[in-house]
Design brief:
Layout (H helix, E strand, L loop, with lengths): L8 E6 L20 E2 L3 E2 L1 H11 L3 E5 L5 H10 L11 E5 L13 H6 L2 H7 L3 E6 L3 E2 L3 H10 L4 E9 H4 L4 E5 L5 E6 L13 E12 H13 L7 H9 L5 E5 L11 E2 L4 H10 L27 E3 L11 E3 L2 E2 L4 E3 L2 E3 L2 E2 L4 E2 L4 E3 L2 E2 L4 E2 L4 E3 L1 E3 L4 E2 L4 E2 L3 H6 L3 E2 L5 E3 L6 H8 L1
Parallel strand pairs: 1-4, 1-6, 4-5, 8-12, 14-17, 15-18, 16-19, 17-20, 18-21, 19-22, 20-23, 21-24, 22-25, 23-26, 24-27, 25-29
Antiparallel strand pairs: 2-3, 6-11, 7-13, 8-11, 9-10, 28-29
Length: about 425
Amino acid sequence: MQAVEMKNVLAVILAGGKGARLEPLTRDRAKPAVPFGGAYRIIDFTLSNCLNSGVHKNLVLTQYKAMSLDRHINLSWQSYLCRELGEFIDVVPPQQRIDEHWYQGTADAVYQNIYTLEKERPKYIVVLAGDHIYKMNYASLVGQHLESNADMTVSTLPVTVQAAAGQFGVVEVDADNRVVGFEEKPQCPKPFPGDPQRALASMGIYVFTARFLFEQLCLDATRHGSRHDFGHDLIPAVLETHRVFAYPFMDENRKKEAYWRDVGTLDAYYEANMDLVSVDPQLNLYDCEWPVRTYQPNLPPPKFVFAEQGQGARRGEAHDSLICQGCIVSGGQVVHSIVGSDSRINSYSHVEDSVLFEGVNVGRYAKIRRAIIDKGVHIPAGIEIGYDHDLDRSRGFTVSDQGVTVIAKTHGVEPFLEKAKS
């Protein structure tokens, strides 16, 4: 594979989606800013991939509810790169240089920022989604792009036909991995030749030769009826006239099965978090060779207090769980759960199979099961959450298709107390 000068590569990270299927977690924040694994935000995985791959020129394109994401990137990521050396992570809100509308699709989001891209004079542009969780070396991706003399390269992953239906772009390739067919989220995906159970899915990760990308974005902008989307429009339009190749996903997570998650629904998000507290999780967060970086708040270590013995004793303990810095488990019990930073689990309370964000306060004798609790929520003493879904819904909480109760941070203390009394 050809050596790659990554200084000639610019990453464009699309981080402007509404994330409607993650409501209410995206009620006040963009999907890439949603906390994950206690200490991280979803976008940290894409940005860590960029840093670890040597991609040091990054534009993060935002649109909806971007303040939390902007603040997180400024806190977490600006210290890793040196602007005097031409390195940066810039958060770019809609500039409306070309069009007064919001972004109409993924290709339009890049097109509306074409002036900013051209100003950096890259040779190659990597287009990434900011809301997927995975580990990937983009230098290898760009290397194959050069070796294939490609105009565009699409990163791909084998999935089951059932998983691909209506969810992923499906790629057809020839013996040389050249893309000969592409359908965006078909209901009946075309399987691998000789393997009717699997299809080749697009990961939404693309490499373009910069000049080619600029030309195609300008052409697409003039096409009447185009959705201005990479999957729906730009890729199918160039297959017969240009060199488009598939790149088989090479996982830096180094597990038996490749790890890539689009945590686009509450249940998918919940399951991905619960994987982290298993004995041998699929996603390795303790990998020093491919670290995942984020903002680490200046807080003390987690603390566990009270160690009484006997039935009904007050014991502060956690089992099969991730407990972040600044937490105090004060006589309560945490089992198979994630507790975000600066949270408190008070005496005789019980938290099980749950994800708690930053600053959650669980009152005495409260019981929480299969729940996601957003930032800063106060759980009143003695209340039960996740045990009666009808009761949870009557309080205004969201219950997912698979029975996970979600409490948004907008409930605050007083509204929660009032609903609990009713």
